[in-house]
Amino acid sequence: MNPFAAKVLGDLPVPTGAGRSNNFQALLGIKDYSDKFDVKIDGQINDRMTAFVRFSQRKDLPSYQPDLPGPSGGNGNGDIHVIDQNFSAGYTWTLSPNSLIEARFGFSRILAGKSPPFLGGQSMQDIYGIPGLPTNSDLAGGLNSQGVSGFSLFGRQATNPQFQNPTSWDPKFNYSLTRGRHSFKFGYEFLDIHTQVLDINPLYGQDQYTGNFSKPTCAQLGQPAGCTIKSDSGSYNLADFMFGTPSVISLGNDLIVNLIQHVNSLYVQDDYRITPKLTLNLGLRWDYATPLYERNNNYSNFDPGCVCMVAAKSGSIFNRSLAHADHKDCGPRVGLAYSLTSKTVVRAAYGISYTFFNRPGSAQEGINAPQAIFGVLNQSIPPGGPAPPTFLTTQNSFTTGIDNPANFKPASSNVAFIPPDIKWPYVQNWFLSVQRQLTKNTTLEVAYNGNHSLRLPILGDYNQANPNLPGQTLGVQARRPIPTFGPITWLDPVGNNNYNGLSARVEHRFARGLYLLNSFTWGKALGDSEQALEYYAGYFQANPQNIHDLKDEYGSSSFDVKINNVTSVVYELPFGRGRRFGSDIHPVLDAVIGGWQVSTINTAHTGTPLNVFYGPSTANDVTGLSSDFRGQAFQRPNVTGSAVSQGNSAMINTFFAGYTFTTPPASAPFGDLGRNAFRAPNFEQWDFAANKTFILRESLRLQFRCEFFNFLNHTNFGIPDTKTTDAAFGTIRTTYPSRQIQFALKLLF
Fold first, then answer.
1. Beta-bridge partners for 707
2. Could you tell me which residues come within 8 angstroms of residue 260 by beta carbon, excluding any fewer than 6 positions away?
3. Is the pLDDT of residue 536 over 80?
4. DSSP secondary-structure letter at 630?
5. 561-599 pLDDT, tens digit each
6. pLDDT on residue 537
7. Does residue 139 contact residue 213 with C-beta atoms inside 8 Å?
8. How far apart are CA 459 and CA 495, in angstroms?
9. Dihedral sign (CA 519, 521, 527, 530)
10. Longest dimension (CA), the chain
11. How far is CA 404 from CA 313, 339, 411, 471, 687, in A?
12. N or C: which end of the chain has fewer CB within 10 A?
């Protein structure tokens, strides 16, 4: 065993349980400091003009304990900082009884980022004698990322540190005019966004051990060719770590970019009251959003035509962004409301809207080579060895300068490709509802909602490696269609998602101290694309396993919830002054039993989809990437069998009981299991609150609140390990929070 591996393994915490998986459990500490304030001034200039100004700030500074304590831990978000400052001002001028002008201005500034544990401490060179990594205090500190496939990550989170600091200016102007049965509204809005970004990773380096290089051959075991060798991917990868033979080496350079985007919007709307029973809403919105570009032209793109990197330059929007502007984003909207009777209303609507702020990851930010380096070096060793002369061990894995722009080599870097004719995604939305008044204070609404999203970005590897031929065990780089380039993160705008849902809503408006609302939804979300960074902590984006075969990716979206029911009840207890009973009780007694209000929310929904995948060996891997937001393929296994019924005590250890998963061969690495084919456990929670307002004097009140989240302390299980090559596959070792109680006082004056 090499000294580095010996120290890392020796510094791991002592297991708290037996076995090789789920053998360490701990309650992770979370600290959170949060405050916010708002200031608003309203002014009446004269009888026709009003104005206001408002300033708000929110500060949130949570700190998360690493998954594993001690020097070999550090994985997790660490220390997070979010400071959100907003300023807004508005002016309204009533020109006449049927027309007015509104002017609004908004300013927003956000500072948001994270830093890992041990930042500013001793460097990798100081602790482990490993050269080639940063030693400055704003990047160095502790163990870097060491990923042994099948085991928890050793060292810091690969994407830490990181930050995004957007600043935006948003002026808006509206003119409203009422003429007869028409109410017109015309407007213009301008949005100017500047974002300072540090989003290159890993800045402190990462070694990954997925190659199974330590797996012996039949000849090495003294067995005849074709003998059976135990399949234990995790053990072979751990042995690779002990021997210091990484399969993937990654290191990025420290570069901050300043992104700019402008959005211009024009809109017109007409609310036309055709008859006393029928109102028609017609609208049209035109948006022009520039592609992202960089303040200092630190921007580039891969060009498939010349098979080269093209740099941005001063001049037109295309010269600076390397993408053609999209001027045709027109979104019509139409809606109607029709009163069938005095107690029944039918509503319907359809509209198209565009989205300009997708963030599938750093690929869309233009952070690209050669000025920004995502250095990725894929290595392989032939079965039985020996290692090639150029093979880098853990000890010297960062000595080649793969993070240095001056040493840029396309074959050992992860560049990005955004098609220059890319269009902004858009969504078609429609709904139909019928609302009926059942009693004086009770209404029922039944609705159908649907949407269809098109041109969504899908992340993949444009240079995805071809599968090995039968009997071959070539590494990733040797199988790429463009051998002079490594992985090419591809923002492919062909995603297609849809949602259809039926909902029912019963509302009993506040009467006799009681308010009740129950909302039920039965829906289905399907598609072939996902949005990065929008999933469970510790989970991943369900990327395609084969970017060239998207038809097999169509399935449940990761956020799909089939059934969801939420019940809310607010009840003022009828005791105390001003209530049905005890309206004349003594003030002291009223302070104890009078004036209480209780509220409850019960939430129940089905589980969200789970994507089962396997950790590919070097021979099976087709991207050589380790991050979903850079286009990593999540290759799925073959599956047979069917689910079996089991209780909770068995489910947490064998969630996928009844199924048999097998890793496909290197010549056919894409399994037959569908994307998001399973579902997480269902969720049920009852929250309860009680509050009371004490009248100290006429203009001074004190409100007391007592809130119970998960009042019954019901156990809601987290998601299972969905990686078939993990020793912990199919086990659940997390839960949603247990019962939490908080008290609050609020002074009103």
1. 689, 742
2. 193, 194, 195, 290, 292, 293, 294, 295
3. no
4. G
5. 999 999 999 999 888 877 778 777 877 787 778 889 999
6. 62
7. no
8. 10
9. positive
10. 98
11. 22, 68, 14, 37, 54
12. C
Name the pLDDT band for 385 (thresholds 50, 70, 90). Answer: confident
- Angle at alpha carbon of residue 561, lines to 555 and 562, rounded to 5°: 85
Contact 329, 264 (CB under 8 A): no
In this predicted structure, what is the pLDDT of residue 591? Answer: 77
CA distance linking residue 322 with residue 417, whole number of Å: 10
**Burial of residue 256, with CB atoms counted within 10 A of its CB: 0-12 exposed, 13-18 middle, 19 or more buried:** middle
Q: Of 628 and 485, which is predicted with more confidence?
A: 485
> What does DSSP say about strands 488-511 and 415-417: parallel, antiparallel, or unpaired?
parallel
Using alpha carbons, list the distances in angstroms from residue 418 to 300, 321, 405, 493.
10, 10, 21, 9
> Does the pLDDT at position 358 exceed 80?
no
Mean pLDDT computed over 274-290: 97
pLDDT over threshold 80, residue 362 = no
Comparing 153-167, 483-497, 523-537, which segment has the lowest mean pLDDT? 523-537
Which tens digits make up the pLDDT trace of 473-491?
A: 999 999 999 999 999 999 9
Q: pLDDT band at residue 394, thresholds of 50, 70 and 90?
A: very high
Burial of 274 (C-beta count, 10 Å sphere; 0-12/13-18/19+):
exposed
Instruction: Kindly state the percentage of the chain with pLDDT values over 90.
Output: 84
Instruction: Classify the C-alpha dihedral 490-491-492-496 as positive or negative.
Output: positive
147/200 Cα distance (integer angstroms) = 18
Q: How far is 235 from 726, CA to CA, in rounded Å?
A: 10
pLDDT of residue 413: 93
Q: Where are the beta strands (DSSP E) in 241-307?
A: 248-252, 257-273, 278-289, 293-294, 300-303
Q: Is the pLDDT of residue 360 over 70?
A: no
Contact 157, 74 (CB under 8 A): yes
Q: In which element (H, E) is residue 678 found?
A: strand 678-679
How far apart (Å, rounded) are the C-alpha atoms in residues 537 and 540? 8
Answer for the pair 132, 399: CB distance below 8 angstroms, yes or no: yes
Closest CA relative to residue 337, chosen from 419, 435, 474, 416: 435
Peptide bond into 382 cis (omega under 30): no
Encoded tokens for 619: 């021979």
pLDDT band at 359 (very low <50, low <70, confident <90, very high): low
In 611-691, where does DSSP find H-type helix? 648-651
Above 80 in pLDDT, residue 538?
no
**Length of the chain counted residue by residue:** 749
Helices (H), 316-429: 317-321
Amino acid identity for residue 479 in this structure: R
In terms of DSSP bridges, do strands 638-641 and 374-378 run parallel, antiparallel, or are they unpaired? Answer: unpaired
Report d(CA 573, CA 703) in Å as an integer.
Answer: 16
Q: What is the pTM of this model?
A: 0.89
Sign for the CA dihedral angle at 647, 649, 650, 651 comes to positive
| Contact predicate 363/629, CB 8 Å | yes
Average pLDDT, rounded, for the chain = 93
The set of long-range contacts for 436-442, using a CB threshold of 8 Å and a minimum separation of 24, is 436/343, 436/344, 437/343, 437/344, 440/511, 441/508, 441/509, 441/510, 441/511, 442/506, 442/507, 442/508, 442/509
